[in-house]
Design brief:
InterPro entries: 6-PGluconate_DH-like_C_sf, NAD(P)-bd_dom_sf, UDP-Glc/GDP-Man, UDP-Glc/GDP-Man_DH_C, UDP-Glc/GDP-Man_DH_C_sf, UDP-Glc/GDP-Man_DH_dimer, UDP-Glc/GDP-Man_DH_N, UDPglc_DH_bac. Its EC number is 1.1.1.22. It contains 20 helices and 14 strands. By secondary structure, it is an alpha/beta fold. The chain has 3 domains: about 1-200, Rossmann fold; about 210-295, N-(1-d-carboxylethyl)-l-norvaline Dehydrogenase, domain 2 (Orthogonal Bundle); about 300-450, NAD(P)-binding Rossmann-like Domain (Rossmann fold), CATH 3.40.50. Strand 13 (about 415-420), helix 19 and strand 14 (about 435-440) form a beta-alpha-beta unit. The chain binds nicotinamide-adenine-dinucleotide.
Length: about 450
């Protein structure tokens, strides 16, 4: 099929590349010319495992190409995906500026019948607005075309985006007509080889499903985090509780890990957008507000624990941080818990040595002043961060951090205190190595000894 994808971010780029991999001819439109040049040269502007080799193969085969000109790229497309960003607006609602801009441009340039598919996460009713905008532009140009609009929200996860797109749990198609459904079924058929996972529904249900899914997942995280805070007060280890409840098939083991909060480009903004949507409908979204409030609190816990550990005096302390990306497998920093910690530590006068396997460059671009003043140093290895550190904080649970040589880390640190923001370490092992160990919702070990010293 001849496909166009508008937007070459995490979603657009992965979708375009995977669709090309299945034999479609894909033209990807991106307004950022530098990004287009980089992609056209086969270089990825983002970190996404497995994507670069596919990109290079598809560029080489001519199946995939990038450009800035929308009109040219959509000229003969049968299906046009809109995959531009929908960031949070000032009041929390989804900012539809980019989506509606693309709709206008499509209406101004289309000269053939085609299907426009909204892949961006958008509030209920947006596909109807896109349809209306295209129709209006076409009628102003005196064009009598049949341009249909469908919803196809994306569920890929950064860090495993290629795998998720190639083998999706489900593909949701929201459409008002059978022809659109048939076309999208045909497009997705190669991704459904072993069993059918396409779910068809109304446009509005498809739009809402994406928000509902993210709200559910965020709620599970905030609920286990609230349980963890209670566990900490009751001298109960949340990790034992997690195993205890995860074995219940009605609950399951996913998304019940206590930690220092969720971040990323989706959960925070989508929960906020749903809150705003409820407000506009005159409904009080009490649970969603609590999910968000708990997450905001959770992101501050590591700093609070550090402050308590140092008796309120963080000025001049050297803190090592492992992991900066909002989760393993990506270099995305959007709403990352690490940023809340970094900023609180810098404001308190602490010095930081941090390492992330792929996000160092993104952090360097954000904090040039702190780096210039020597208050933040980005290190090439986790061991380098430990040199002379008064405390070590694990924020993002990259595999590289799972089984470090703790004896070496301890020898490098000035004082061995470990704050485990993802509960991945064995408290007893660390205690025996002489560390003070604090985590999220687990009894602290070695704290009394450190206080006495
Ligand atoms: N990132 C994820 O994990 C994820 C997962 C599922 C759904 N989503 C949703 O998908 C959408 C895109 O997310 P993303 O993370 O890929 O965003 P992103 O910010 O990484 O990428 C969006 C891209 O679109 C480009 N763009 C904006 N306006 C344009 C225009 N008029 N013409 C051409 N290009 C334009 C931007 O320059 C940018 O490169 C959002 O609605 C998001 O909520 C994201």
């Amino acid at each position: 099929m001849r496909i166009s994808v508008i937007g070459a971010g995490y979603v657009g780029l992965v979708s375009a590349t995977c669709l090309a991999e299945m034999g479609n001819r894909v033209r990807c439109v991106e307004r950022d010319a530098a990004r287009v040049a980089q992609l056209s040269a086969g270089r990825l502007p983002i970190h996404e495992p497995g994507l670069e080799p596919l990109l290079r193969t598809q560029l080489g085969s001519g199946q995939l190409s990038f450009g800035c000109e929308l009109a040219e790229a959509v000229a003969d497309a049968e299906v046009i995906f809109i995959a531009v960003g929908t960031p949070a607006g000032e009041d929390g609602s989804a900012d539809l500026g980019h989506v509606l801009q693309v709709a206008r441009e499509l209406g101004q340039s289309l000269a053939h019948n085609c299907l426009v598919v909204v892949k961006s996460t958008v509030p209920v009713g947006t596909c109807e607005r896109v349809q209306e905008s295209i129709r209006q532009q076409l009628s102003e140009r005196g064009m009598a075309l049949k341009v249909r609009v469908a919803s196809n929200p994306e569920f890929l996860k950064e860090g495993s985006a290629v795998e998720d797109f190639m083998r999706p749990d489900r593909v949701i198609i929201g459409a008002a007509d059978q022809a659109s459904i048939n076309l999208l079924r045909r497009l997705y058929a190669p991704f459904m080889r072993n069993h059918e996972r396409i779910l068809c529904m109304s446009l509005r249900a498809a739009e809402f499903s994406k928000y509902a899914a993210n709200a559910f997942l965020a709620a599970r995280i905030s609920l286990i985090n609230e349980m963890a805070s209670l566990c900490a007060r009751l001298d109960v280890d949340i990790e034992e509780v997690r195993r205890g409840i995860g074995s219940d098939r009605r609950i399951g083991t996913h998304f019940i890990y206590a930690g220092c909060g969720y971040g990323g480009s989706c959960f925070p903004k989508d929960v906020r957008a749903l809150i705003r949507c409820a407000e506009l409908e005159g409904m009080e979204p009490g649970i969603l507000r609590a999910v968000e409030a708990r997450n905001a609190l959770q992101k501050t816990l590591l700093f609070q624990a550090l402050r308590e550990h140092f008796g309120g005096q963080l000025k001049g302390r050297l803190v090592a941080i492992w992991g900066l990306a909002f989760k393993p497998g990506t270099d995305d920093l959007r709403e990352a818990p690490s940023l809340v910690l970094l900023e609180a530590l810098l404001a308190a006068g602490a010095r930081i040595q941090a390492h992330d396997p792929v996000a160092n460059a993104a952090v360097a671009a954000r904090y040039p002043q702190a780096i210039g003043e020597g208050r933040l140093r980005l290190c090439e290895s986790p061991y380098e961060t430990s040199e002379g550190a008064d405390a070590l904080v694990l924020v993002t649970e990259w595999k590289q951090f799972r089984q470090p040589d703790f004896a070496r880390v301890r020898a490098l640190m000035r004082t061995p205190a470990l704050f485990d923001g993802r509960n991945i370490y064995d408290p007893q092992q660390l205690f025996e190595l002489g560390f003070v160990y604090r985590a999220i919702g687990r009894p602290s070990l070695g704290v009394a000894a450190a206080d006495a010293a």
